[in-house]
Amino acid sequence: MKRSSSQITIRILAFAVLLAAAASCFLPKGTNSRAVQDAYSLDLTPNITKGLDLIGVAGHVQDKGSNPDNSDGRVHIGVFGGEELMKMTLRDYLIGVTAAEMPAGYGIEALKAQAVAARTFTLKHMTGELKCKSGHTVCTDHRCCQAYISIERMKKNWGEGFMEKYNKICEAVDGTSGLVLTSEGELVTALYHSSSGGKTENCEAVFAVALPYLVSVESGGEEASPEFQTTVCLSNKEFAEKINTAFPDAMMVEPAKDVEVWQRTDSGRIALIRLGGTVVSGQQLRNALELKSTNVEFEFEDGEVRISCLGFGHGVGMSQVGANAMAGEGADYETILKHYYTGVKIEHYKYETDLLAILSATDAEKKNPGDEARG
Ligand SMILES: [Zn+2]
């Protein structure tokens, strides 16, 4: 088949898109009502500025051994709330994250799985292996780190149901206190999302980094969730305008002829798509149209573009809806976590040795007078 020069140009563009994807971890912004770590700015590269806001491990000497089930309460963390830095215990932070990230009505075992994933993700920031875009240890922006709500917000959100729901969230956090996910002795990058649409995604398909514990798995029981499948309808004109605004090189005129899915990932999500005169990644498409996922099908009929989306979020790691479905079928949090994070171990984190060593090193760096003297 003879190829036109424009087709060849598009092939080159597609290659450039793939290269860009491989070189960057920056992802399109999600539009989630509650956060699912759908971070366009989630950077999986190591952070060389360790623990900027690590406040310390309070009372670790006095408490050591006296209350091993409450180890989260001895660790303090600085949480950047957009304008101010809030200082709190790791326990209180994880309660706020779990309450923000997962409906309190979900099964207790799903909430426990969420708490362990959130703790692991947080400690990965505290040890400096992941970094927050704000420059602080963690922030409350779900597009960057994890969502967080204060107790005051929980009271407003839950009204008369506050005490019951708050106690349930506390049970999830305290019932797993100090537990983290590890792989080959290291904390894992415990990504999670709202709904996978039936199958989770390989890490490298979204973040350009392959991790052995973040591989695609089946995620059953999600069908009943309102987030399982969503549909967006746009007129041809609206669709073309949105695409041309986001991607000026598209110069789209007739969507039915100008939209062509070129490549899907193993789980069915769009990897590459031609939009008129340009080729973009599924994540770029999702960002431009504010879609709930990249698992998209198009229909063109009666002057309209009908976009059906499966799942909600990037699809990597634990599906929160799937976790709740598993909990409903009697699975405990360990079974849920080991299903979504392949080959991981669930272990007690050594706050007293591992985190203190990092804190000590960080303090020593801060006290180095040479840093201020230079420049
Ligand atoms: Zn952040």
Q: Tell me the helix content.
A: 25-40%
Rg, rounded, reads 22 Å
Distinct small molecules bound, one entry per kind: zinc ion
State the domain count: 2
The main sheet comes to: 4 strands, mixed
Note the overall shape: globular
Structural class: alpha+beta
User: Helix and strand succession?
Assistant: HEHEEHHEHHEEEHEHHEEEHEEEHHEHH
Unreliable spans are 12-53, 55-69, 369-375
What's the N-to-C terminus distance? Answer: 62 Å
Give a verbal description of the structure.
- This protein has 375 residues and is of the alpha+beta class.
- The chain has 2 domains: 5-21 and 229-310, no CATH class; 31-193 and 332-362, no CATH class.
- 38% of the residues lie in helices and 18% in strands.
- The chain is built from 14 helices and 15 strands.
- Strands 1, 2, 3 and 4 form a 4-stranded mixed beta sheet that branches. Strands 6-5-15 form a 3-stranded antiparallel beta sheet.
- A hairpin with a 2-residue loop joins strand 12 and strand 13 (304-310).
- The longest helix is centred in the first third of the chain and has 19 residues, at 5-23.
- It is globular and about 60 Å long.
- Residues 12-53, 55-69 and 369-375 have low confidence and may be disordered.
- It binds zinc ion (ZN).
- Zinc ion is lined by residues 132-134, 138-139, 141, 144-145.
Question: What is the gist of this entry?
Answer:
Helix content is 38%, strand content 18%. With 375 residues, the protein is α+β, with helices and mostly antiparallel strands.
